[in-house]
Amino acid sequence: MSEFRRRYYPTLCIRRAEMKAMEKLPPSEKAKMLPIVLLAPWLNSIEFKNTFDIIAKSVGDIPIIVDLDRGYRSESDLPSRQYFRSLLGGEGASERWIDLIQAHDNYIPTVQLRGNEDDAVLQQIAAFRRFGRGWVFRVEFDGPSELDRALRFFDPEEPEQQLIVLDFGWHDYTLEQQAACSRIIDRITTISDQARFVVVSSNFPNDFTELDNMAPVPIGSRRLYQSLFSTYGNYQMYYGDWGSTKPRKYDGGGSKPLPRIDFPTKDRWIISRSKEEEWDFFDAAKRVTRLEEWRDRPAIWGTSMIEKTALNLPGAISTGPQAIASRVNIHLFLQNNYAVDRVADIPTEADWVDPIPA
Amino acid sequence: MSHLDAMPVPVGRIATALHLRVLTAALDPDISGLIRRLPGNVEQHEIKVNVADVAARQRFTVAHEIGHFALHRHLIGSDGITDTILFRSKLSNKQEAEANRLAASILLPWAAVHQYCFERFGVAPSEENMAAIAKAFVVSELTVGFRFGF
Fold first, then answer.
1. Nearest-CA distance from B10 to chain A in Å?
2. Helix/strand/coil for B89
3. Contact B22 A300 (CB under 8 A)
4. Which of B50, B146, B52, B54 shows the shortest CA–CA distance to B107?
5. What are A215's strand-pairing partners?
6. CA distance to partner chain A, nearest, from residue B49 (Å)
7. β-pair partners for A11
8. Closest among A323, A322, A344 to A333, alpha carbons compared
9. Contacts of residue B54 in chain A, CB cutoff 8 Å?
């Protein structure tokens, strides 16, 4: 059976927050979603193998879609960086990508269009057809897109074997975005009304200066998907987002952010911070646990961490990355269970895994 | 039991060998773990550890609950024994201390830790190499100090 069906498609980078957040989700939740993992070197790893290891630790052995994180930048000559760059394009890139996919049974490949000639693309598709896991055209609209090429290589005779991911990157919801997206979907559904496609975007804020004192931020990717659903809901259109993160090019910069706890609900993030009152993580978490929305929280790692922080207990959130991992963990869980009325009732207990080297 | 010779000690496998099921759960934040007899089954027990605790802490909790299972099984009902973050429960302080001592002994076998220290540092376990012992055996430094009296 094809893995491409109505489910949640979060895009995840190889960064600490996403990897921790996924690791801490119950295995039953991971099995329901189909993550899109953007491969890149893991932290300062010498070998690229550490990327595969951290994915295995975080995501487990469930099927995942893999692509290359073309937003990753490094001037380093470490072997992991050299290998990564060798996958991005040029002679032998396509063969190396095929080898990488073949070596990992649970990886569902994206077709690497950028940096590869048509012959190399056809070679990839032939190999992916042999592997029998399906293949994905992931089209980014943050710059010049490969949509035309992707649609040229899309085979309308095998719609169940292929998935088209339409990734709008960091983009707030607007009517213009909705219209642009509709035009693209019209093109796809004209080629095949059985085509499977995912609509992905993120509007998680870059700047929090205007977001003081429990400000709510509507989740734009949900608004976009819902607005498209009335027109295209009877097609094979699926929801995706960036797991409440952003593409890598928006990382970093600026001064050290204020302590902040972001509490996701299904349709908005509530940003708990106060510059004026100089809240620390304890203050921010305490305010979150007083929200009416807190009562319907899921019983998972992210909410447990916020609760621990609000009680000032040992092991509480004390750094930005911990707070982000908690937010991503809750966001992934909620979007994975978007159709469930009472997420607090979803069983989340799981077999404990002894965290020692095997 | 051969698991006790391994380093770090695979406390999860010890639990399995004792027919104890171990689960992670979103427990109250001031609860580290619990052990209870499954309702309707006098033989089957389960341990729950707090999902929000760090790895070393979860390992200690599992070992502590194994301690209760080994020493105080007759006191574990279907309502179980629930341990706070300070490892206090409905049992007496003496019984909690017994479970703590057994937990530390399980996670830090005397001979294995001495062998590790002599091979690595050429000396017996000491406060100076407490951090290295904790890392090697995936326990907290607090547990190492408790076990060896530092």
1. 7
2. coil
3. no
4. B146
5. A271
6. 8
7. A36
8. A344
9. 315
Is A300 in Cβ contact with B51 (below 8 Å)? yes
* DSSP per-residue string spanning B119-132: HHHSS---GGGHHH
The Cα diameter of chain A in Å comes to: 61
A vs B, Cβ pairs < 8 A, gives 67
Please, are residues A66 and A134 in contact by the beta-carbon 8 Å criterion? no
> Quick check: pTM over 0.80?
yes
Q: The tokens of B38 are what?
A: 């499954």
Contacts of B147 (CB under 8 A, 6+ apart): B104, B105, B107, B108, B113
Please report, in tens digits, the pLDDT of each residue of chain A (358 residues total): 789 999 999 999 999 999 999 999 999 999 999 999 999 999 999 999 999 999 999 999 999 999 999 999 998 999 999 999 999 999 999 999 999 999 999 999 999 999 899 999 999 999 999 999 999 999 999 878 899 999 999 999 999 999 999 999 998 889 999 999 999 999 999 999 999 999 999 999 988 888 888 999 999 999 999 999 999 999 999 999 999 999 988 877 667 789 999 999 999 999 999 999 999 999 999 999 999 999 999 999 999 999 999 999 999 999 999 999 999 999 999 999 999 999 999 999 999 999 887 6
